[in-house]
Amino acid sequence: MLVAVCFTALCQQYNTVIEGSFKTDKFNSINLITSDILSSDFIYIGRAKIDSQKKFIFKLNLTRPVLCKLFENVFFITPHDSIEIEASENSKSRLGYDLTVINAKNSNNYTYYNTFISSVKAPSFKQFKDGDFSWLAFQKIYGEFYKAQLAYLDRSNNNNELSTEFYQFLKKNCLFEHMLALLDPLYYKMPFSTIELRNSLQSLGLDTLIKSESSHEFLSFKSFLKQYFKYVVSAELVHSDNNIQFINQFEYVRNNFEGASRELLISLIFKETVTLPDPKYYAINDSIYNYAKKNFLDSSMLSFIEGKYLLYKNLHNKVPVDILATKLKDVNGIELELGSILSTLKGHNILIDNWASWCAPCISAIKKAKMNINFLNKNNIIILYLSQDEEAAQWKKRHSSLKLPKQHSFLLNDPQKTFTKYFRISSIPHYILIDANGNLLSQNSPGLTDVNELIKLIETK
Fold first, then answer.
1. Which 3-state string (H, E, C) describes 396-431?
2. pTM (2 d.p.)
3. Are residues 333 and 432 in the same domain?
4. Exposed e or buried b for every residue in 327-365, given b needs 16+ CB within 10 A?
5. Which terminus of the chain is more solvent-facing, meaning fewer CB atoms within 10 Å of its CB: N or C?
6. Domain check: are 290 and 219 in the same one?
7. Which of 83, 115, 147 is the last residue of a domain?
8. Domain residues for 35?
9. For each successive 10 residues of the chain (461 residues), what is the average pLDDT?
């Protein structure tokens, strides 16, 4: 079965409008997304409803080219695009469909980017995993690949095949991806000296790039910095006492980084601290919070840190009364309160699944959950499905097709977004875990894709 998607992107003063048609009965909206380094999740660039005529429109404010995804298809979107997409639904793919770009009229950047990544093939790390690792051989092969990328871009620039802005963007992106690739031996735990790695990165301008605010406009650079700190810096700050280890990390960042790099690393360190599931680490959270608040008052990420700390402090609190009063609707349109539903489930561990009919990852997760019924029963877990859909008809249709239990499936009726704001739901699926006594174990719980962490939360309550 072929599904045709056609859309046109026009830009006026960087106000980009993407409109077109998507002939499908599976979805009532589509999303443009990109990755978020800090949350290890995705963030929306834009969301568009598909109307009864199968039309949709994105209204975006783009100031530069953006790497993003439409469903599972990674592509480059820039102002002035006019793109025709044909998608075939493939039951063997992870989400049940594929998207293949077959044409890109008036979109030189889009066309060039896809040609570029298919013309200069990256080397495979498999040869190094399967044989004796040599840093010199590894560096030589990946260095040659990076040089080939730059040569291709230079030829294209000389032939006026891409704009100067796009040329500079791709050159920087290739540099950051090359620096990230140099960390692969550490990821695969290959034996070699990090001094060699540091020297190679320094020759590429590591110190200058870390200090540059513009570097943080690139997802590839933030990915590199995250992995560099994890595998190179943090590895030298390991301590048996977690409290001392985290303070050592904070001190190192404060003394050796600045600007946006410093802010990102502060947040990553604190994120790791507050996500430790074992209660024996709770004191660390208090200690690190107080330390960060004392030493990083100039940090623009302090509000983020305080938000994460509040999540920790609320870990074993009861759900607030005003949140328990959140209105829900069942499949018959009868309005109920969240508190009354939770009270009927007391005695069970409750995993609240925040989902929507248009969310493909949500649908996939629900289907997997239905196959884990033995695990749920063994651990006394009931899933409470709360739909974030704006239209009841779309929710009911998906509720029916998924055969969700009526007594555990409801439509969230929260026009003021009180529930969503309290639990800081920025993307879905989003899970909330409540224990058999009504204690709030996690406001951002793992789902059934990570059953080991889920069990840890339940067993250490």
1. HHHHHHHCCCHHHEEEEECCCCHHHHHCCCCCCCEE
2. 0.61
3. yes
4. bbbebeeeeeebeebbeebeebbbbbbbbbbbbbebbeb
5. N
6. no
7. 115
8. 2-115
9. 46 63 73 67 75 81 75 69 62 53 60 84 77 83 95 95 87 94 86 85 93 88 90 79 76 87 82 52 54 67 62 63 90 91 91 91 88 87 92 91 91 86 81 87 80 76 53
